[in-house]
Amino acid sequence: MAQVKMQTARTTLQEPAAAAEDLLRQLGPTPPVLVTMFASRERDQYALNRAVRERLPKGTRLVGATTAGELDNTGIHEGSVVMAALTGDLEVGLGLGTGLSVDAINAGQMAIKRACEELGVRQQDLDSRRCVGLVIDDGFRYKKEELLLGILEKNQTLVLVGGGASDHNRDPARQSALVHVDGEVATDAVLVALFRTNAPWAALRSHWYVPTGERLTITKVDDSHTRALEIDGRPAAKRYAEILGVDVPDLEFGTPQGFAVRPTALRVGREYFIRAAWRPNEDGSILFANLLEEGTELELMRLGDMAGMTRGFFTDELPRRVQNPQAALLFHCGGRMWYAHATNTVSQLAETLKAAPTAAGMNVHFEIYSGFHINTTLTTLVFGAN
C-alpha cells in the first residue's frame, strides 16, 4: 500500500529554541521526509529556522513561510507556529528562486530547475500522474503570473498549488514576507517543493461562491495591466457599483456589500477561478490583484453559505477526489479571513477545519492553483492511501 501520512504540531512559545523543542516533541520520533513550518510573521524567522533545522534529522527537508494566520484541525490561529511532518511514500526535491521583483520568470525557472535536479529528472520528463509542485512565493511582490510562466515553461502538464507568504500587518508600507528552504530564509523569492509519490493525491480548491450567469467585459486597462479603466465600455468603478446596486466607496473588498459579495471569476471549462476585484481608485478605475487583458469576459459570482460550502468541501468533495485522505496542506486566502471578520463568521469558518483530514496551513496573500493566480479561495494539496 502506498500512502502519505501527516503529524501536526503547534506552539505559542516565543523563544526560538523552546518553540522548536516543543514542536518536535509533539511530532514524535519518526523521521519525516519533509517538515512544513508556517510561522507568524512577527517571530524571528532566522533564529526559528536555525533552531528547527538543528533539531531535525539531517535527511529531513524543511520548507515554510511567514503567515497572516496559521491553520490546523483545531482552528485558525494568530501568533503561533504550525508544523507538519510528512512521512510515507514520498520523494521531495526543493528549489529556491530569488529576485522575484527583478525577473520573476527567471526566479520561477530557477526554483523548478533546482527542484528537478534534486529529484534527478528533467523538467520536460516529469510524470504529471506521480508528481505535483507546491509553490510558495513572497506574496507582496505580486509576481505570481510571471513566476508561474517560468515554472511551467518546459512542462505545462505539471500541477501546481500553493499561495503567497504573508504578514498579519495590514499596513502596505510595513508588510513583508519570508520563505524557508532548509537552512535558507529569503524574501523576494519563491520556493518550489516537487513531490513524487505512488500514493493518491490531488490539488484541490474551494470557494464559497456560485455562478450567476451574468458577465462583464474588461474593455480598457492601464499600462500595468492591473487596473481596469473601463468595464462594458464605461468607467470601471461606476459600472461595477451599478451592477451591485451600491455606491463606489462601498465596493472595497471586505466590506459587507462590496467586491467580496459579488466577485468576478474566470471560467475555464466547468471550473470557476475567482479573480476578484480588490479596490476602487479615486480616478474611477478598479485595482485587481491579477493581470488583466482587454476583452476578457468575466463571470459575476454570488456569495453562498461560507461555512457550509467549506465544510462540504472537506466532507464530500475531498474524499471523492482522494482515496483515503490522510494529509492536507492548506493555503487559505487572507481575503476570506478579511470578509469573515467583517461579517463576524470567523468562528464558523474555523470550525469547518475539524472536518478536514489531518491538516496544516496558513492564511496566504493570494493563491496558486493549476497554474493560475487566483484569490478568495482555499487551495490545498491532499495525499491519501491506496
Automatic annotation (TrEMBL):
Domain called FIST C-domain: residue spans: 236-371
Pfam families, alphabetized: FIST, FIST_C
Domain FIST: 31-235
InterPro entries (alphabetical): FIST_C, FIST_domain_N
PANTHER family: BLR0328 PROTEIN (PTHR40252)
Protein name (Swiss-Prot/TrEMBL): FIST domain-containing protein
